# Entry
Amino acid sequence: MKNIVTHFAILIASISLSAQVNIEVEGSTTEVDNLITAQVNYSGSQDIRAIVGHSITNPGFGIGGRLTGGYKGIDVINNGQSFNFTTYGIYSSSYGTAGTRIGLYSEASGGTNNLAAQFGAGHVEIENNLRIGVTTSGGRFHLKNQNTLFGNKATAAEIECSHNGSQVTKAININSSNSGSGATYGIFSIATNSSSSGIAHAVRADVYSPEDWAIYATGNNYFNGDVRVGTQLDPYDGIYRVIVDGRILAEEVRVQNSTAWPDYVFENDYQLLSLTELEESIKKNGHLPGIPSAKEIEDNGQHLGEVQIKMLRKIEELTLYVLQLQKEIEFLKNQ
# Structure
């Protein structure tokens, strides 16, 4: 077939074909100009389309246009010039009365690195929901990662943030507000692990300098489970809500104990051991009656509130012994 490369122009006001006509244009092997160029010369405030493709053979069937390129399948440039409102490089719309409608669909395969979409300079704005790896939305942004879909990539999202300046650096900045009566969470996290050997962490934070804080919180903190510092083990079967492997420094510690405060020692019916009975008990057991032995403290530690109560009881008993001795001294002095 002989290629025609002669340049010519035809002015057509309107053309209408009542039957299907196939138009094929084949370019030259040496010509580098555009094979087909459509240019609108109208000057005015109307959106005149240079090319219109319309193909609806049946509901859900028909392709308006198809382009194939070795470098770019489609190369779109939008020149809004001095227009003061929004212009679009690509404007896509999909509509109907049933089924799923996708305004823009893209896929990439076969390469060393396949990107279905890549955005260069500029922001990305999404008016409605964004779903990744899931077809139903659990919120405005829903991301789901499963090993069955992504191989060994078990991290659903990874965020890196670095800055060299005086501004506060935040990898994630979350602001949550609610003007209604429902609970409001800045971050709500749930972690589960069905493995018998795995450990689930709803939140994990790591820092690598003693001067840094893994968690910095302003306001009240509520824990509905155990708190463990310096250890992940609980050798006490959940009896204690706070376990610390190390020392605790505090300006003041208050123990709210439901056990009765030992003012009952001063009641008239309190059975106070005689000094002889007290001496026999000490010789036999090596410690005051009612006070844990050194071996018990070594094995089980001491209950701060309980020991305080027992120590006060002994102090009050000691006070009674002193008062008894004082009476005996006064009696002897009067003889």
The CA atoms of residues 60 and 99 lie 10 Å apart. The first strand starts at residue 130 and ends at 132. Strands lie at 130-132, 141-143, 227-229, 242-244. Residues 262-333 form one domain.
